[in-house]
Amino acid sequence: MDGHASLLWYAVNIRSLETLLWITRLGSFSAAARHLRLTQPAITRRINELEQELGSALFRREKAQVVLTLSGRRCLQVAERMVADFAALKAAAAQDLGVSGTMRVGVSEVIALTWLDKLLERVGNRYPAISVELDVDLSARLVKKLAARRVDIALLPGPVVLPEAITQSLGSYPLSWMSHPNLMASDNTIEPSDLVDVPIIASPDDASVSSVMQNWFRNAGVRPRRISYCGNVSVVASLVRKGVGVSLLPPGLFKEGIEAKTMKVLSERPSISPLEYSVSYIPTSELGFLPEIALFARAISRDTEVWQ
């Protein structure tokens, strides 16, 4: 088999592996057929051919659903890697072919306010015909959107628990309690009990930073009494600057306020761990450039000041 025939054989089998992934994600042959714009017999034929090639059944029927066999579950992880690798291969081969299309990027506000501009510039230089749609939202909501294919790639805090997704670390970003200098005038180190009666402006419960805050109080057996919620980091910072309350924020975003003494970083005990961030996407040959976009994001986050 020559090189061209080998690549053709690999591409054909990748389509079968993609079919396996979409059946698993959507729960049925008919749903996968609709998504891939194929007939159900075509989907069935792909899986039958793949099962013959592998010498093992991949699915079994349970009532009205199809579920993976034990062999199918083992093959699924390898299939995800192979689809991702082939997508990266296509992206590399297409670098001079004018790749076009739309990429929907889900992004947390902290990344949007720090290095998203650098990522967009690099994407524009590399793929000038790609349009980018941005969706700035909280972490839990971005994970749901990624699972529902409403975004193609997500840059977000916290873990991404999606078995079909490729997830890579973007490092971490420090968090600290911040206030207006007149609200918390003392330079002493604060403990959870010191904030019981202080107005707190918190992120919504489905934000990763909210879990960090809740754990900090819970581990000390403390329950604050005055909490307001806001999902917009910029608005929260504005309220902190005006002395409305304290908030757990990334101080690296607010150097100007700290230098102007409209905001103050509080020393806390116990210390608060930096918030971990990830880039996550679900491999698909339709967007073969996603692995490279994830690589761009990882490189930029490493080079960004304060980002750890």
From TrEMBL:
Transmembrane segments: none
Disulfide bond recorded as keyword: no
Keyword set, alphabetical order: DNA-binding, Transcription, Transcription regulation
Keyword Isomerase among record annotations: no
CDD domains for this protein: PBP2_LTTR_substrate (cd05466)
Pfam families given in the database record: HTH_1, LysR_substrate
MF-aspect GO terms: DNA-binding transcription factor activity; transcription cis-regulatory region binding
Domain HTH lysR-type span(s) in chain numbering: 12-69
Similarity-based family: Belongs to the LysR transcriptional regulatory family.
Protein name per UniProt: LysR family transcriptional regulator
Organism: Acidisoma silvae
